[in-house]
Amino acid sequence: MIVTSETDRREDARMMGAGAPSALAVAAPTPGRIEIVLRGGRRIIVEGAVDADTVLTLARGLEALR
Length: 66
Prior knowledge:
Blueprint: E1 2-3, H1 9-16, E2 25-27, E3 33-37, E4 43-47, H2 52-64
Antiparallel strand pairs: 1-2, 2-3, 3-4
């Protein structure tokens, strides 16, 4: 499933956690892999056993630095 800013905002909140910027896109094309595309087109890709909440916190922090 791919979540983009064009999808329903309720779906964004459910998939990315409450308070997540709607400009983030999150895709999980394969099990154990998370890909986050930031507003500026930069990507964060993690594989393996990772805490999704921690990765989203990192993405939000990087967006806040802009």
